[in-house]
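Table S2 (text version). Query chain:
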Amino acid sequence: MHGGDIVWITALVVLGFTLYSFYTWAFLVRHRKIISYIERDILELEEREKLFRREVASGNDFVKEKYEKILKLLERAKEDYNFEVEKFNRKLKSPLYFIPAKLFGEVPLEKKD
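Corresponding structure-token output:
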């Protein structure tokens, strides 16, 4: 091997690692964005749940059905959030994503109760 061959091989290895790192990091960022959308929905549903709970507690039976529907949606959103967080955390631990996750400072997320 000549000196020029080693330079090209090194350049290709560095380029390959860089592409691999950015691809996997972009996937993690996309997944984190999905989780943030679910989180936003949970916050909105919790606000609605508080308002409807007050109405139901004050004796307004017209909103009781809506209140129960919001509770179901809130429960479903929390389940979706926990599922996505679990999937994200599994990816962080996998060998394929471990190096880029450490390189870009990604940390595991916590589940919601």
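Notes on Table S2: The chain has three helices and no strands. Residues 45 and 74 are 6 Å apart (CA to CA).
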